[in-house]
Amino acid sequence: MTKQLRAALAAVLILSTASMQAQTGTSERTATKRAVRKKAESPLERTLRELREQMQAQQAQIDELKRLLADRDAKLSTTSQDAQAATASANAAAARAQEALTAIQSNHEEMATLSSSVSDLKVANTGLAQTISDTKRDVTSAIESPTTIHYKGVTITPVAFFALESVWRSRAMASDVNTPFNSTPYMGSGMAHVSELNFSGRQSRLGALFEGNTGPFKLSGYVEADFLSAGATSNDNQSNSYTLRQRQIWGQAATQSGFAVTGGQMWSLVTETKTSTDNRTENLPMTIDAQYHVGFSWARQPAMRFQQRFGKFTAAASLEQAEYIYSASNAPSNFFIGAAGTGGGLYNLTANYSNNVAPDVVVKGTYDAKYGHFEAGGVGRWFRDRYYPAGTTSAGATNDTKTGGGFFANIRVPATKYLDVGVHMMTGTGVGRYGTSTLPDVTVHPDGTLATIKSQQGLISLEGHPLKKLDVFGYAGGEYAQRTTFANASGVLVGYAPVTGNNTGCNTEAVPSGSGNGLAGGAPYNPGPAANCLGATRAILQGTAGFTYRVYSNPRFGRLQYQMQYSYLTREAWTGVGGAPKATNNMVFTGMRYYIP
């Protein structure tokens, strides 16, 4: 709008205002004036009228514009309110969306947890199914293939193997698969000139372990027997009916603190063990020979053993059955150390038994380390005889007791993964019976009192495991008995292996002897013994090599194994009149055994 038009409009507005104030407001008067104007209207009036009409039109437009503006403002207000409401709704929707998202996330986490739980449950169900299957299998296996027999609260584990074994010796000894090493014949014996081949199933073994666990302590009992004994009717002629022999039979009570007490017939505490001083872990040579090996110290006899573990260390003590092995030349007759067995006393009528004054006492300590097993111990022994100083009468008769004993040690270490090395030694006086050759314990003084004999025993062991099924072994051992003599009033040497002993016939073969009455030892079972041959043993040496091959081994069905052993044996005598005789023997053993699982 221009400035002129604005001025005109202002003037019209002023004039219109003044004209409107001059009117009286009646309709007739207005109509009269309109009629007068219509009749006569000047140009100025027309201009003013037109301007007024334009103003009215513009006013109407202004009013319309105001209305439109007001309407727009109203709409804008409504739109703002709607926008605010929409914003609020959007915020609410966003909040709800966030809540929904949170809920979805929570649901997702719950679903994930649930899914994980389901997966775990599936795994657990799978594991449970496997456990049930394994349990079923184990139960079935336990029923069909039990490892033990259950009787009330006691479990019984059978122990057995069944053997066929053989021995060939280049010099006959009339012996089964156990070798009496100290009886190897000198060349003066007819037996030294013939070999022998014997088959045997007598080392087959039967036994069982009985165990009951009371909680505070464990009770155990063990029995083991073979057939390496002979009764009055035993022979090899047709039915080899050898008697069942008691090897071990003992009972034990052990506490959880490592203390155990064992009583019965068992391996002597002198015997090397694999673990602690535990029964049934004896570390025996792997030989077929049931007498084991020269240099190995052992005994199986009634005893009472006490042991206590202190971690890897074990201390043990044992009271054991005593027995004397006696040997003497030119001995007086005014004493005795025992008697032959009494039938009513259930002792063997053909065996001698010493009158023991006290049990043998054995103490031992062991240490089990990662790098080996170590043992050291001692033996205390007491020897008693009754002697008669007057000789021909009992005047002054009295008992005399001598003390003996010795020290022993064992070391067993794994030199490599495939080889174990062992060293054993024992030395002392009066301990010969603990050697596998059973050299003498005691001899006698000229007055009839006893004298102990110093002896030594030693063994080196090599045991290899080159294959899972194969073991190889080698042993070298020796035993020694010291010459122990005393001169009597006449100057004659009395005791063990006097230098005046007659050895002149030890290497000259003797002819058969005997009455030929068909009894044991009669013709033609009467090879001539070496005549004029004291041959008191100084040392016995043995070297052995062999192997064990496990043909088949299964925890359900047991083990089948084959063994072979070669040994070379030497027996050396003390020098006497005629020199120092020597006896040798080559021995080959074979064995096939089936061990029950």
UniProtKB/TrEMBL annotation:
Protein name per its UniProtKB record: Uncharacterized protein
Keywords noted in UniProt: Coiled coil, Signal
UniProt keyword Coiled coil present: yes
Coiled coil: 48-75
Signal peptide bounds: 1-22
Annotated organism of origin: Edaphobacter modestus
Region (Disordered): 21-40
